[in-house]
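Today's session is about reading a structure prediction critically. Students often jump straight to the picture, but the first step is always the sequence itself: look for stretches that repeat, for charged clusters, for runs of hydrophobic residues. Only then move on to the predicted structure, which in these notes is written as discrete structure tokens rather than atom positions. Here is the chain we will use throughout the hour.
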Amino acid sequence: MPPVFHPVPDALAHLAGEWLVTRDVVDLGDGSEGRFAGTTVFSALPGVGGSGLLHRESGTFTWRGVARPAERTLRFLAGDEPGTVRVEFADGRFFHGLDLRAGRHTVDHPCARDLYRGEFEVYDRDRWRSRWRVGGPAKDLLLVTDYVRG
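Below is the predicted structure for this chain, in token form.
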């Protein structure tokens, strides 16, 4: 039975709050596997008048048996279409658009000579997943991240 996706009319409103995160990472070139476990908090982004969220992810990433603290910060801003999002890196560079109005979205992000293809799926109010396939001369990875509302 194919998955049923949960339409999200306003991605910023849906994402706001704290999420428990697990991410499985597989290097498709050599078979190495890693895992991230932590939290992502989407909080009001200062200075954008309620039309943006600061995405702060923190936790532990274990790769090849070595556990290390890991974190990243992104900015989620209101997109051009109502309910959509413009995702930026912390320094303001564009990362990708995000449209969850159908409960599912696919996007490409070229990075140097590699291509990141992202798939986002919303299952219900409290669960969603991102899947990034990264391919090119520098990387051959699959990253699957599950989010559960905290």
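Discussion point for the tutorial: The chain has one helix and ten strands.
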